[in-house]
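W.,

You were right to be curious about this one. When I first looked at the sequence I had no strong expectations either way, so I just let the prediction run and decided to look at it fresh. Below is the sequence, 362 residues in total, followed by the output.
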Amino acid sequence: MSNPREALKSARRVVVKVGSRLLATKSGLIPDLARQISEASANTRREFLIVSSGAVSLGVQKLGYGERPRQMPRLQAAAAVGQGELMRRYAEAFAQYGKTVAQVLLTHSDLASRRRVTNAQQALGALFEAGAIPIVNENDTVSTAEIAFGDNDQLASMVAPLVQADLLLLLTDVSGVLDPNDQRISVMTSDSVMGERKASNPHGTGGMARKVEAAVKASHSGASVIIGAAGEPEAITRMLAGEDLGTLFPPHNNSLKARKHWIAYTLRPRGDLLINAGAVNALRSGGSSLLPVGVLGVRGRFSPGDAVRVIGPDGDEVARGLAKLGVLEVAHAAGQSNAEISEGSGAADQIVIHRDDLVLFS
């Protein structure tokens, strides 16, 4: 397709992410979102899911804290109070259009479990069938550094494949990703992002860099992604109409199936496998499993079934996958062929990562 924005007109399931800064600075944002989303879903068969920040900020105000607390228990208390207020605002805004909203709170550990991922998919599917608008947020009341997503851009990039979204809108307060001359970039791809990173220009730091990272992840699930300004008049309506707003990340040409996307972008690696050049070539050329003979060393602590990074001799991440062996087993077998392993221990052929559990990176 010559114009990648044409595909946006036929997007049927749309994830919209709004951040706490937007909600704090634009008092009419929630009613405006409710109106545009309600109109878009009424005129078409589109389904919407909102990933919304803002609970902690609202809770800080409600509890009378002078500033955002640093202590985890007080942050969790603010989230508990603020989440109810956030949902009240969404419920009242969508009720004006006869729409029902549903609260869905997630932690990273929920999405790291295949069983809980399936449960979440089924629950969200039932909400879509009922015509409700899921409002998804991180469960900050119980989240700690160990189970937090880091930010809701990352959460949105994981929710998009969870619900098989066609389009993810990362709404922000700037016009999109800007080039070094502060001009908006209309279309970006994973390859262009990598090129800019190698040129030491990651399109800014902090919030925008994380949004670009989230956009690349979601585009690998087969979704289109737009980073764009919520303050543009009728922003959502115009983006859905294919207008040239924001920065578009088209779906990646080699989109990942849901399970492989989960391995690559949701699970947190527990360790690293350092492999030699021959193993890199074998993985990239033949779709092979990773065998002990190609492993030079290990880092971290991991058990069978844990996600691990696969690092080539140049230090770049070549792949990510689920280890079939624990760290001590891999360290003991590293550099040996299966014939040598069998001769020394009588063990059967060993595989470090099976090809079905391996995701290669370009």
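Here's what jumped out at me. The radius of gyration is 22 Å. And, maybe more interesting for your project: The CA atoms of residues 100 and 130 lie 9 Å apart.

Coffee later to discuss?

I.
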